[in-house]
Amino acid sequence: MTAPLITVEHVGKRFGAIQAVDDVSFRIDSGEFFALLGPSGCGKTTIMRMIAGFETPDTGRILINGEDVVAQPPHKRPVNMMFQSYALFPHMNVAKNVAFSLRRQGMASGAVEERVREMLRLVQLDGLGERRPHQLSGGQKARVALARALAARPRLLLLDEPLSALDRKLREETQFELMQVQRDLGVAFLVVTHDQNEAMAMAQRIAVMRDGRIEQTGAARDIYEHPDTAWIAGFIGDANLIDAIASGDEASFDDAAPHIVFDASGVTMRVNARNIAGERPAKGARVKIAVRAERIALSRAQPEADNVLAGEIVESAYLGDTTMLRVACSNAMTLRIARFSASGETFERGALVFASWPADAARVLTR
Predict the structure, then answer these.
(1) Which CATH architecture has domain 6-225?
(2) Could you say which of 31, 120, 168, 188 has the lowest number of CB atoms within 10 Å?
(3) In angstroms, rounded to a whole number, what is the distance separating the alpha carbons of residues 180 and 167?
């Protein structure tokens, strides 16, 4: 295995009485697209600022290529940052904004001009070098900020909520552009965001943060399908979190299909034995059973399935590609169910239905 580009080891940071970052460790490999994802105030921006050198950790180490850089000033680190506000100089045109840091480094004029042309081609802004920031769209401003941040050829680019100022359609388009630029250059990207869709779309690995700590790190699919905690299951995607008690009965196991049985408000629920986060819960243990909204089927006739609940549709919201339903079940449980709108069959508010899902569609969470 090659050594990681960035290693964060047991880093902590306190601001007065607030523990902003609490014993955080992770690594970023060369050329990797990595995301720190979490709600506002969870400490992700503080970690990014410590990597950049704008904040100093109280505890732990930050290594770049194996060297501890905690004592190094920002300009000595092979790191650059694209700010949330873009921070473009309004009195300078696009070309001069991109060239600013290169000229401060003392690069020759001819080399600066060639690098600026290269960067503008990279971000698809050829021919716009003479425009001022106020003459650009939001997406174009984001690309100018990206070109300026990449012009000095850092080993790691830090992106602080880079697309939050853009509307949804432009944000999605710019995500793909960022991914293409990152692949073309082979530069490692660390994006800090509260937007789960943004992190899942772009990053190869994600560290999910909560209250200054990392709850889980992994690829987007692993975190989505195999959350470690009930909080992550609720934060990433749309999951139903069902309170249940482990039966612990040996009769709960079926050799042909190893299902563990739980009691959820008087309803028997079966979960594949492989779908447990952590240790198998003991008899009587209280757990959460997570079932994604899109994994629940809906029918008018009672189906043959591992898990079946009867209920009534109490809300229906058409969202274009999907329709989101709320079903009040007979055991006082309410389920959120997502159906593809193109599936054909429609279910109106007040309809009596059966919600069902297989045992391998659920995950048992003990935390």
Answers:
(1) 3-Layer(aba) Sandwich (3.40)
(2) 168
(3) 20
> In what helix (H) or strand (E) does residue 94 lie, and over which residues does it extend?
helix 94-104
Pseudo-torsion of CA 360, 261, 308, 341, nearest 10°?
-30
Give me the CATH code for the 230-365 domain, please: 2.40.50.100
Within 13 Å, how many C-alpha atoms sit on residue 151's CB side?
A: 31
Enumerate the domain spans of the chain.
6-225, 230-365
Between CA 346 and CA 65 the distance in angstroms is: 56
For every residue of 171-230, DSSP letters joined together read: HHHHHHHHHHHHHHHT-EEEEEES-HHHHHHH-SEEEEEETTEEEEEE-HHHHHHS-SSH
Q: How far apart are CA 296 and CA 248, in angstroms?
A: 25
Q: Is 225 exposed, middle or buried (0-12, 13-18, 19+ CB in 10 A)?
A: middle
Could you read off the pLDDT tens digit of each residue along the chain, which spans 367 residues? 578 999 999 999 999 999 999 999 999 999 999 999 999 999 999 999 999 999 999 999 999 999 999 999 998 999 999 887 788 889 999 999 999 888 888 888 899 899 999 989 888 888 889 999 999 888 888 889 889 889 889 999 999 988 887 788 888 888 888 898 899 889 999 999 999 999 999 999 999 999 999 999 999 999 999 999 999 999 999 999 999 999 875 444 455 557 889 999 888 999 988 899 988 888 899 999 999 999 999 999 999 999 999 999 999 998 888 999 999 998 788 999 999 877 777 888 999 999 999 999 999 999 9
In 3-state terms, what secondary structure has residue 278?
coil
Q: Residue 199: phi, psi to the nearest 5? A: -65, -45
Whether 230-365 and 6-225 are alike in CATH topology: the answer is no
Q: Tell me the pTM.
A: 0.89
**Side-chain-side CA neighbours of residue 266 (13 Å):** 5
Kindly provide the residue ranges of all beta strands, DSSP E only, lying in 265-306, ordered along the sequence: 267-272, 276-277, 286-292, 297-299
- In angstroms, the CA 239 to CA 233 distance is 6
